[in-house]
Recover the amino acids of this structure.
């Protein structure tokens, strides 16, 4: 049976299950044998003592070999039976070949156009009018708008469109997702964070209980006009808690909810200012536009011979956007657009969903995506079932776990992660996953629609691929061996249940949720992937002991996130298969085992927080990712060793320094942050090491949190030779005096984040000549001494420009400047408006501009703020292309509130 025909029959499924389980058992036995051999060779001493030792263990070795040989004979017998059954059932064994894939350019255009989804303009504008229609009345009660409808109708998309369209109309905004298993504390924290709440210094919001969060949110939003979107509510209880936290002041505030359940929608709108809006399917016209735009890039590009079959396909999709996007993405990925292929898809769709959409009918449509996947992608798709609902999945995490699980096939020296990225892009192109963020045309994270996740979980259970549970009692009485286990646990857990279950055959373990339960790691003998997320545990000083991992000899991927101290074993050398080690202790210091330098296969070492790396790091030649390298905590030898990691592609440098505590004469205590090892030799070593990293593609630098780090910045200003392959450079927190000259050599750089004290004409020239630069964030911390002039030459491909400057009038765009620029963001403050006021000149010369966003820091007088807003609007209004414009005056820019007091006292030349 080929990949693109139909699902296997019952006999073929049984045969496939037997082959899968047999392959697992064979691999486990081989791993056991190799581990035994390796352990014997490593543990046997030399000389006469070694002879005695080997003699005493001879019988044990013979018994071990007999046991393993017996296991192999049993496996061989099972393999012969499975082979005979294949011949009997005449099961085809064709294997499709993977290929490297990039994001479909039609999909990028499709996402850009249909982010607002065809047919959504009319209901969006209608609902906005409902929300804003009585704005002329002095005070209005809080409104609640509830969008209700079947899954896949586009409720979240409509809510998001309203949310984006009303940006700037409300003082506080937030968009949160609830889901079937809501984490109320996380939801409340997200609302606070998105709405702009800044907790007091040295305060950890993650440990706040529900009562504190409710009280804080009520107080913060009181007397504010807010817009809150609460997406995907499944029960009234969750709504009642969130509703209690949102003040009901008469400030024209609005809450938008989405749900599939009528009773929940009515409960949300139980007050007199509530409105339930029932989502309708797309019309035939809008369905056609959505369908053909995804496949052909245009509604009018469909060949005549496909017109009739397309009409029948669309009818069976019932106007459901999710169904239409799924089927159109499936057809768009066909190499040849043949009528026979389209008719095959039509016949597979089954009953018409136009009148009565059902979960089973939607699952059947989504199942077509799975059936028509190549075999190498089916496994990758099913692995998405290890993540909880509505989880944002980082591409890097996903592809590294695929590699660790052995899902990636390579040939001709291909890099496994590059191939895995192609797999990820295929899933995006086929709309199996929905990209949640892009970087330079590449999706870097994704989410799985809950209806697609429902299908995946169903398949995982059917094929014993992943067991995803939220109650350990569900594991009792299992007949199949658990191969991959996802635990999403809340509340108090009785861990004794796990003691009765064999866990040695589990290959992947992922743990989520708010429970304090920690799985018995030593029991997972064949574990390859371990992902532990304890961020839901609201404890101030938890200790998470990972000592059990030193026995996981097959471990290839380890990621742990937790609030508190994460304790690694003192010796980690036995984990010779480890490829990824990522530890996030939310700022706590992590003690790295000294023998980590002997892990020859380690590719990604990512430790957040203060970290002292051991001497000998230069031996880790395989490292591709290192983050963060804490310059302030590490020795001179370690800094020199950094330059020997010539395979590094991703480097993140921090310099946290250390804290000096001094008791003063009056008995009080003074706390001062100072630097460790910041001296000329260390700076030379850092400068030299960065210059040696010839394969570096991403560099991020986070300087020390102290006032005097000029030597550190000098090192960055004079890197030689420059890392010429660099593609992204993040110096956002470094506040350099000028644009470093070595940046001019970065011909592959497409994204640059830079903060400088001043920008002169030569500095603009350095940036303008970067041939690949598409994204630029430039913050000028001081008051520019001369005009920042963007001429018609340079910046050939720049699309996104963000400029922060206390003197917005210093920014000038000449005719023909930045011909590709699409999005301009400007940040400035108003305390010096009376002295340096004025809008940037020449905005109308940016011919390709589509959107402009201006944020005005409101620390000046009201008259200055009004004058600044008026000047900006006048400058934007003269642009012939009429770009979408937004001027936000909701708060201070992050840099200006730190430096504005210094700006008044600076002696600068303001003649220009």
């Amino acid at each position: 049976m080929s990949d693109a025909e139909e699902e296997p029959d019952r006999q073929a499924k049984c045969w496939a299950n037997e082959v899968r389980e047999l392959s697992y058992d064979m691999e486990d036995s081989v791993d056991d044998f190799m581990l035994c051999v390796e352990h014997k060779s490593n543990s046997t001493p030399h000389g006469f003592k070694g002879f005695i030792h080997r003699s005493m263990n001879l019988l044990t070795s013979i018994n071990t070999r007999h046991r393993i040989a017996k296991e192999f004979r049993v496996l061989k017998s099972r393999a012969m039976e499975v082979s005979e059954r294949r011949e009997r059932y005449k099961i085809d064994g064709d294997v499709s070949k993977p290929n490297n894939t990039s994001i479909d350019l039609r999909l990028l255009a499709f996402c850009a156009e249909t982010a607002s989804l065809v047919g959504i303009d009319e209901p969006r504008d209608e609902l906005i009018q409902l929300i804003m229609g009585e704005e002329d009345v002095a005070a209005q009660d809080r409104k609640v708008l509830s969008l209700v409808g079947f899954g896949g109708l586009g409720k979240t998309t409509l809510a998001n469109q309203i949310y984006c369209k009303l940006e700037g109309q409300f003082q506080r905004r937030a968009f949160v997702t609830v889901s079937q298993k809501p984490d109320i504390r996380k939801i409340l924290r997200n609302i606070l964070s998105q709405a702009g709440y800044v907790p007091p210094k040295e305060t950890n919001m993650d440990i706040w209980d529900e009562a504190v969060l409710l009280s804080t949110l009520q107080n913060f939003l009181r007397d504010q006009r807010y817009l809150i979107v609460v997406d995907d509510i499944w029960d009234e209880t969750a709504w009642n808690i969130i509703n209690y936290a949102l003040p009901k002041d008469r400030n024209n505030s609005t809450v938008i909810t989405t749900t599939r359940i009528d009773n929940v929608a009515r409960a949300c709108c139980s007050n007199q200012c509530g409105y339930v809006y029932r989502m309708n399917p797309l019309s035939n016209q809008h369905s056609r536009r959505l369908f053909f735009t995804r496949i052909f890039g245009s509604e009018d590009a469909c060949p005549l011979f496909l017109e009739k079959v397309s009409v029948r396909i669309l009818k069976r999709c019932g106007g459901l956007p999710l169904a239409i996007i799924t089927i159109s993405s499936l057809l768009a990925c066909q190499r040849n657009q043949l009528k026979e292929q389209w008719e095959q898809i039509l016949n597979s769709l089954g009953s018409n969903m136009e009148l009565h959409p059902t979960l089973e009918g939607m699952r059947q449509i989504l199942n077509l995506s799975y059936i028509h996947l190549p075999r190498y992608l089916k496994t990758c798709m099913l692995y998405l079932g290890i993540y909880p609902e509505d989880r944002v999945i980082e591409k890097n995490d996903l592809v590294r776990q695929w590699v660790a699980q052995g899902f990636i096939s390579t040939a001709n020296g291909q890099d496994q992660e590059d191939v895995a990225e192609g797999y990820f892009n295929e899933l995006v192109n086929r709309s199996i996953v929905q990209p949640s963020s892009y970087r330079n045309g590449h999706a870097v994270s994704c989410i799985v629609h809950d209806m697609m996740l429902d299908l995946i979980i169903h398949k995982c259970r059917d094929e014993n691929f992943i067991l995803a549970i939220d109650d350990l009692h569900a594991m009792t009485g299992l007949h199949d061996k658990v191969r991959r286990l996802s635990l999403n646990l809340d509340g108090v857990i009785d861990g004794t249940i796990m003691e009765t279950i064999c866990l040695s055959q589990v290959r992947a373990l992922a743990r989520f949720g708010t429970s304090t339960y920690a799985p018995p790691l030593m029991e997972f003998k064949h574990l390859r992937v371990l992902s532990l997320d304890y961020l839901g545990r609201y404890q101030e000083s938890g200790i998470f002991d990972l000592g059990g991992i030193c026995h996981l000899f097959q471990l290839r991927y380890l990621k742990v996130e937790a609030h508190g101290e994460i304790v690694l074993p003192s010796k980690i050398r036995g984990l010779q298969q480890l490829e990824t080690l990522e530890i996030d202790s939310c700022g706590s210091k992590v003690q790295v085992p000294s023998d980590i330098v002997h892990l020859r296969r380690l590719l990604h070492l990512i430790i957040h927080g203060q970290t002292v790396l051991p001497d000998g790091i230069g031996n880790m030649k395989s490292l591709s990712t290192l983050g963060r390298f804490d310059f302030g905590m590490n020795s001179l030898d370690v800094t020199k060793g950094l330059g020997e990691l010539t395979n590094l592609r991703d480097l993140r440098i921090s310099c946290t320094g250390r804290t000096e505590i001094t008791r003063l004469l009056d008995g009080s205590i003074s706390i001062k942050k100072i630097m460790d090892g910041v001296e000329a030799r260390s700076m030379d070593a850092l400068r030299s090491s960065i210059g040696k990293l010839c394969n570096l593609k991403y560099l991020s630098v986070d300087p020390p949190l102290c006032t005097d780090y000029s030597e550190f910045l000098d090192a960055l200003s004079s890197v030689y030779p420059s890392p010429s392959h660099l593609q992204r450079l993040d110096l956002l927190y470094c506040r350099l005096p000028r644009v470093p000259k070595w940046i001019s050599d970065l011909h592959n750089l497409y994204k640059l984040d830079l903060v400088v004290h001043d920008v002169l004409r030569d500095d603009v020239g350095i940036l303008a000549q970067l041939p690949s630069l598409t994204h630029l964030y430039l913050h000028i911390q001081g008051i520019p001494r001369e005009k920042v002039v963007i001429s018609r030459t340079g910046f050939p491909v720049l699309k996104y420009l963000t400029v922060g400057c206390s003197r917005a009038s210093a920014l000038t765009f000449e005719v023909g400047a930045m011909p590709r620029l699409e999005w301009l963001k400007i940040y400035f403050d108003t305390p010096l408006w009376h002295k340096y006021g004025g809008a940037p000149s020449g905005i109308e010369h940016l011919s390709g501009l589509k959107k402009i966003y201006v944020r005005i820091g409101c620390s000046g007088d009201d008259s200055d703020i009004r004058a600044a807003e008026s000047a900006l609007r006048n400058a934007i209004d003269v642009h012939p292309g009429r770009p979408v414009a937004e001027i936000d005056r909701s708060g201070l820019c992050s840099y200006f509130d730190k430096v504005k007091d210094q700006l008044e006292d600076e002696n600068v030349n303001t003649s220009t």
In short: The longest strand covers residues 728-736. Confidence is low (pLDDT under 50) at residues 1-5, 112-116, 658-677, 891-912. The chain has five domains: 10-89, 120-278, 283-403+416-462, 610-723, 727-912. The first helix runs from residue 10 to 43.
